[in-house]
Design brief:
There is one protein chain. The protein contains 8 helices and 17 strands. It has 313 residues and is of the alpha/beta class. Helix 1 packs parallel to helix 2 and helix 5 runs antiparallel to helix 7. The chain is elongated, with a radius of gyration of 22 Å. The mean pLDDT is 96.
Length: 313
């Protein structure tokens, strides 16, 4: 068994896969940090994070401090001796005292090829930008925002119809395998070579706001297609028909078709075509407020939607 005490800090399923891989590789994981349970679902029931659920399944002690900025918030964690701390989409800022906690410092699993898309939402921003590829960067943590030197960079192509959900699965698998390899080198050699991030090509992946997922029909159809895919599965691209909110889960851009942006120009068994600033967007799967996902043509039939109707504002 590798003689490293590996702490872990993370929250979503992306991070849970890395935790599972580290434990499966035989590393001792004496402590896991994750965010506090949050209300979820229609009943707003308190729900544990994916990382907490995985840690409990593995029998690993879990701490859920609301913040690590105070001595009180981090005291219980820092009392556990660590050689290295692996961090993946944790969601809390790590102050200098926490970064100095493990003997070898912290290793962050970041879902982009740094320095492109530093920040909170690299997967969605890569899709919104129409990037042909992305990746995972394993980096040594410092006090900056994803600015630390790189331990390993793993390239991951973005498929033409990629969604945030499918891309997250690919990146999680790459990050899990990559961090195990880095930890094995660290256990074997007592060090891992690092490379400074390039000074050029820095972009920032700002946190996603709900307004980002609203379909602006004045934009080209190709742009709106990327919005739909970038916000599947969360929070879902949105528009409205009159006063009714409507989420769009599957759509394809078409070069043909014209009309005022937001105008329904065709309704058929293949979907509902909506005019955009350039081209049109064929809606194939939608979800009305309070309802279930359904084929767009079924939604149109139920609402008697016909060419000339308007979506959006």
């Amino acid at each position: 068994m590798p003689a490293l005490r590996v702490g872990f800090a993370g929250t979503p399923p992306f991070a849970a896969e890395a935790l599972a891989a580290i434990a499966a590789a035989g590393f001792a994981v004496p402590i896991v940090l994750t965010q506090p349970d949050r209300p979820s679902g229609r009943g707003m029931k308190l729900t544990a994070s994916a990382v907490k659920q995985k840690a409990q399944e593995l029998g690993i002690p879990v701490l859920q401090p609301p913040s690590l900025k105070t001595e009180e918030g981090r005291a219980a964690a820092l009392a556990v001796p660590l050689d290295v701390l692996v961090v993946a989409a944790y969601g809390l800022i790590l102050p200098p005292a926490v970064l100095a906690w493990p003997r070898y410092g912290g290793i962050n699993i970041h879902a982009s090829r740094l320095p492109r898309w530093r920040g909170a939402a690299p997967i969605q921003r890569a899709l919104l930008a129409g990037d042909a590829g992305t990746g995972v960067t394993l980096m040594q943590m410092d006090a900056g925002l994803d600015t630390g030197p790189m331990l390993e960079v793993i390239a991951v192509p973005i498929a033409p119809r990629e969604t945030a959900g499918t891309l997250t699965v690919k990146l999680a698998a790459a990050g899990a395998a990559g961090v195990v390899g880095v930890l094995e080198r660290l256990a074997r050699e007592g060090r891992v070579d690092v490379t400074p991030q390039p000074a050029e090509g820095v972009t920032y992946a700002a946190k996603i706001e709900r307004a980002d997922a609203v379909l602006d029909w004045r934009q080209p159809a190709a742009t709106l297609d990327r919005v739909v895919r970038a916000f599947d599965p969360l929070p879902g691209a949105s528009t409205h028909l009159g006063a009714e909110a409507l989420k769009v889960w599957d759509a394809v851009p078409l070069a043909t078709g014209s009309g005022a942006p937001g105008t329904v120009i065709a309704v058929g068994p293949e979907g509902v075509d909506v005019a955009c600033g350039v081209g049109c967007l064929r809606l194939r799967t939608v979800q009305p407020a309070g309802g279930k996902r359904m084929p767009a043509h079924a939604y149109a039939r139920g609402r008697q939607l016909a060419p000339g109707a308007m979506l959006g504002g």
